[in-house]
Amino acid sequence: MAATETALRARGLVKHFKRVRAVDRVDLTVGAGERVALLGPNGAGKTTTLMMLLGVITPDAGTVELVGRRLPGERSAAMEQVGFAAGYLPLPERLRVREFLELFADLYGIPDRRGAVAHGLERFRITGLADTMGNELSSGQRTLVGIVKATLHNPPLLVLDEPTASLDPDVAHRVRGGLERICAEDGTALLVTSHNMQEVERLCSRVVFLAGGRVVANGTPEQVVSHFGSRDLEGVFLHLAEGGAERISDARQVS
Amino acid sequence: MRAQRVRAVARRQSYVLKRAPQRWFDVIVWPVVDAILFGAIGVYFGSQHGAAAASAAFLLAGIVLFHVVFQAEIGLATGFLEETWSRNLLNLMVTPLTEPEYGTGVALFGMVRLAIGISVVSLVALAMFAFNITSLGVALIPLVVILLVVGWSVALIVIGLILRVGQGAEILTWGFIAFLLPLSGIFYPVSALPAGIQPIALALPTTHVFAAAHALVEGHPLPWGQVALGAAGAAVLAAVSVWFLTRMLATFRRRGYISRHV
């Protein structure tokens, strides 16, 4: 990582869509090598926040710094340090898996793109998919290929939006295992959104809950569970989804 | 600008052309159809006045050069559309790829498509109507350059509109070019148009390029005044298209329109 202890630093992010305040003064920090989950019910502002963090959506207010690079001015250099995958993104129809991955290896400026692709496929044990067309993959295979794409350049920060949504439990297990290996071997920081609370507890050391576009809790899973008096993260999630966030006046740092 | 990223985008476009047979329609089928259609019309009307070859040459020079604008515009605009059709836009936007690198990569491969399309229409004109476009000489070069700039500029405006209003604007990929066809004096002088729309025709850079091309076909020297008007118009159009695309991209990012493409 480029001489910084922070993989991601966002301050005061605000986003309105027409009259709706989708994201409201969100502060978010992910340390180098840290694994953080961004959680919240549908409409909480998770994906909008992620898109602002990645420079795809321009915030109305606030700042984003990725691995020491400020958006939007240093977007291209910042994105060399970040990998992104989303469970809902398809692969382009007219590309084989190998061609798709080689395209992105080139976009990330990897000198030995073939070697990087072979290593990436091997790491997730999907070498056999290399010559398969993108539209012939199952959703689980597509997710795995998407994560290989996001990690080809060994980024210091990996951002994943619903990586295991709609996957069979065994495939989701493989995805989680692969992610854990990458984080452990490369010291990659992880920012992940998920509706699977067990997955979050296994993968992440810190959780940030959003509700109504605001950060309503930020701490270790145990701290957040304890703070809300719930049995587990699922209980916190249900509490917030049922309107619990409205009773919270300010964002809480519970750590 | 990184050459590796530009090459990657161009290679991605080559896979699309290779694996999407319908894309060959623009590159092969329309050039063949147009060359036969306008060559035959030229021969027929020319034969009524004892000047079949000259008449066919007039129309064929027009259709060959029209394909420069058409292929340049279609190549760039459909290259971008392919990313929206395959929902690949978000994947690209979260890489280090910059907008100029993307545009250059698509336009570079667009040049390959253009070369194929122009070769096809030229060869059909030569084989079926004995019209050789290269007989017009090196004077064609500035005309082709201006038409390329116009084609790419129109494509940038179309891409800007797709970013702004969504895929509903994709019809303009072909629609804008359809407007240029009757208004640019490609197959007849501008004076043949209704008086009310002649000022519009004269404001188009393409009109001056085709007037210059017709002068060449008739054996006159290249009218540099027309070339200058065409070049000036193309420069203005290029500047406007870049400004427009930049604005539309900013709106796209500000309003979160990426949600339309995932």
Describe this entry's structure for a reader:
The complex is a heterodimer of chains A (255) and B (262). Chain A has 255 residues and is α/β, with parallel strands linked by helices. Chain A has helices spanning 46-53, 75-79, 97-107, 113-123, 139-151, 169-186, 197-203, 221-228, 233-241, and strands spanning 6-17, 20-31, 35-39, 61-66, 69-70, 82-86, 157-161, 189-193, 206-211, 214-219. In chain A, the strands form two sheets. Chain A has a six-stranded mixed sheet, sandwiched between helices. In chain A, strands 2-1-4-5 form a four-stranded antiparallel sheet. Chain A is globular, with a radius of gyration of 18 Å. Chain A starts with 5 loop residues before the first strand and ends in a 14-residue tail after the last helix. Chain B has 262 residues and is mainly alpha-helical. Chain B is 77% helix and 0% strand. Chain B contains ten helices and no strands. Chain B has helices spanning 3-19, 23-48, 52-85, 89-93, 99-129, 140-165, 172-183, 198-203, 205-217, 224-255. In chain B, helix 6 (140-165) packs parallel to helix 10. Chain B is globular and about 60 Å long. Chain B starts with a helix and ends in a 7-residue tail after the last helix. The model of chain B has no long low-confidence stretch (mean pLDDT 94).
Q: State Rg of chain B.
A: 19 Å
Q: Between the first and last Cα atoms of chain A, what is the distance in angstroms?
A: 26 Å
What fraction, in percent, of the residue positions of chain B are helical?
over 70%
Which parts of chain B are unreliable, with pLDDT below 50 for 5 consecutive residues or more? none
Radius of gyration of chain A, in Å, reads 18 Å
How would you describe the oligomerization state of the chains in this entry?
heterodimer
How many E strands of chain B?
A: 0
Look at the helices and sheets of chain A and give the structural class: alpha/beta
Put simply, the count of helices of chain A is 9
Main beta sheet of chain A, described?
Answer: 6 strands, mixed
Determine the N-to-C terminus distance of chain B: 27 Å
The low-pLDDT segments of chain A are 249-253
| Sequence of strands across the biggest β-sheet of chain A | 6-7-8-3-9-10
Beta-strand percentage range of chain A: 25-35%
Write down the secondary-structure element order of chain A. Answer: EEEHEEHEHHHEHEHEEHH
The geometry of chain B reads as: globular
Number of strands of chain A: 10
Q: What's the helix-strand series of chain B?
A: HHHHHHHHHH
Strand content of chain B: under 5%
Dominant shape of chain A: globular
Please name the two chains that share the biggest interface, counting residues whose Cβ lies under 8 Å from a Cβ on the partner chain: A-B, 32 and 33 residues
